[in-house]
């Protein structure tokens, strides 16, 4: 398992499809070490702090293995690291294997998986494909967020070591499907047993179950 690329961006204002908004989704690869602190990487930022960033979304990770899938699906060959707005472009950590609550050592930092990524229109705007956020969600290739348990320096090329498994053993893909795809009550109840799951996702599962 490896950190292939470290990608950052400070928020900038863009105007696309009649909308003007501030976003940090336009990540670009950087070389050299960066400090990963509790809420962010040095030099990185979010434009919408209501829906992005914070303790449970300090870092967004995306498996590089999915680049080939999307290049084929979209008939494109122009992808670069950070293409999906991720901070960490990873190798060897797929959503069907990584569990919510797993703890990893990345360089000098200790991190924990907290939730899948919920795409919004900004991802569609970035790729120039209306409705791509819905296509991305249906594919269940969400990537995942991390919280920082111990701050430290991280750098592209670093190996990633599994420190401990999430005790419930529910994968990122299973959690994502439970809320947005299958919506099975038993899976939602199982997800709510995961202590490491972000508060926002817990509330969403509680609302799902309340609807019956």
Element layout with pairings:
Layout: E1 2-8, E2 12-16, E3 19-23, E4 28-30, E5 34-36, E6 59-63, H1 65-74, E7 88-91, E8 103-106, E9 109-116, H2 121-127, H3 132-139, E10 144-150, E11 152-154, E12 160-164, H4 172-180, H5 185-191, H6 199-210
Parallel strand pairs: 6-7
Antiparallel strand pairs: 1-4, 1-7, 2-3, 5-11, 6-10, 8-9, 8-12, 9-10
Helix pairs in contact: 4-5, 5-6
**Residue ranges: pLDDT <50 for 5 or more in a row?**
none
Structural class of the secondary structure composition? alpha+beta
Distance between the termini: 40 Å
Tell me the major beta sheet.
8 strands, mixed
Give the strand order of the largest sheet, numbering strands 1, 2, ... along the chain.
Answer: 4-1-7-6-10-9-8-12
SSE string, helices as H and strands as E: EEEEEEHEEEHHEEEHHH
Structure summary, number of beta strands:
12
- Radius of gyration from the CA trace? 16 Å
Tally of alpha and pi helices:
6
Average predicted confidence as pLDDT: 96
Question: What percent of the residues sit in helical stretches (DSSP H or I)?
Answer: 25-40%
Strand content: 25-35%
Coarse shape:
globular
């Amino acid at each position: 398992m490896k950190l292939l690329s470290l990608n950052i961006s400070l928020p900038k204002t863009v105007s696309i499809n009649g909308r003007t908004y501030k976003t940090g989704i336009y990540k670009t690869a950087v070389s050299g070490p960066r400090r990963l602190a509790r809420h962010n990487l040095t030099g990185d930022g979010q434009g919408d702090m209501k829906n992005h960033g914070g303790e449970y979304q300090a870092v967004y990770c995306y498996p590089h293995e999915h680049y080939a899938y999307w290049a084929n699906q979209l008939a494109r060959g122009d992808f670069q690291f950070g293409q999906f707005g991720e901070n960490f472009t990873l190798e060897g950590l797929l959503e069907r294997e990584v569990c919510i609550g797993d703890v990893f050592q990345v360089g000098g930092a200790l991190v924990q998986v907290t939730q899948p990524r919920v795409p919004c229109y900004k991802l569609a705007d970035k790729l120039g494909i209306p409705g791509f956020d819905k296509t991305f969600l249906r594919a269940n290739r969400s990537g995942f967020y991390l919280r920082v348990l111990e701050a430290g320096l991280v750098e592209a090329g670093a190996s990633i070591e599994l420190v401990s498994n999430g005790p419930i053993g529910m994968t990122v893909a299973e959690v994502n499907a439970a809320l947005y795809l299958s919506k099975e009550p038993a899976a939602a109840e199982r997800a709510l047993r995961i202590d490491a799951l972000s508060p926002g996702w817990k509330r969403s599962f509680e609302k799902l179950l309340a609807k019956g």
